[in-house]
Amino acid sequence: MVANEASARNDYTSIAKLLHWFMAALLIGVWIVGFLLDDMPKGPDKMAMVNLHKAVGSTVIVLVGLRIVWRLFHPVPRLPDSIPPVLQLLARLGQFLLYGLMIGMPVSGWLMSSAFGYPVMMAGIIEMPNPFSAPDPELAQAFAKAHGLMAWILALTVIAHIALALKHHFFAKNDVLLRMLPRLR
């Protein structure tokens, strides 16, 4: 589907939908892995999960960059006029919060690992640069706290995002949810 077809139907483009759902799956998966890491005993299994968490998490920043570039050239569909302006503003602020967290989470994780002196392999392939000249456990702990706090804020924001999309579909009976779903022919 081309962009003008999507805007004529008030849908997101196929690329926007693909990025949305792919990133949703990645973020939920990497959040679950990160949450499970806290209870795992030290050892090779935990290190493998940490490396998976970092590999997937670090690729999120690239995907967020792609989403932002895509949005610059393909504006989001207008919200229905039935939604009051203050709620439309809150919806946009919620989207900015999600984008901020999708950037902040991988950046804080990268900085935390770097400050602890551990490498981060983007997608498990490319080693990201370490911005610190030497390990700094105090700084690493600060980034770890920020990373953990953002993880919980992201979880709550995603839950709210899903709940509000369902509210629009089942209670407000508008197309807000449908226009992000794939169109099956």
Please describe what this structure looks like.
There is one protein chain. This protein is mainly α. It has five helices and two strands; from the N terminus they run ααααββα. It has helices at residues 3-8, 14-37, 44-73, 85-116, 137-170; strands spanning 121-122, 126-127. Strands 1-2 form a two-stranded antiparallel ribbon. A hairpin with a 3-residue loop joins strand 1 and strand 2. Helix 2 packs antiparallel against helix 3, helix 3 crosses helix 4 (85-116) and helix 4 packs antiparallel against helix 5 (137-170). The longest helix is centred in the last third of the chain and has 34 residues, at 137-170.
Quick gist of this model?
This protein is mainly α and 185 residues long.
Count every beta strand, where a strand is a DSSP E run of 2 or more residues: 2
Average pLDDT over all residues:
92
**What Rg, in angstroms, do the CA atoms define?**
19 Å
The coarse silhouette is elongated
Structural class: mainly alpha
Task: Work out the helix count.
Answer: 5
Q: What level of helicity do the residues show?
A: 55-70%
Order of helices and strands: HHHHEEH
Work out the oligomeric state of the chains in this entry: single chain
Query: Distance N terminus to C terminus?
Result: 12 Å
What portion of the residues fall into strands of 2 or more residues? under 5%
Spatial strand order of the main sheet: 1-2
Main sheet attributes: strand count, strand direction, barrel closure: 2 strands, antiparallel
Low-confidence stretches: none
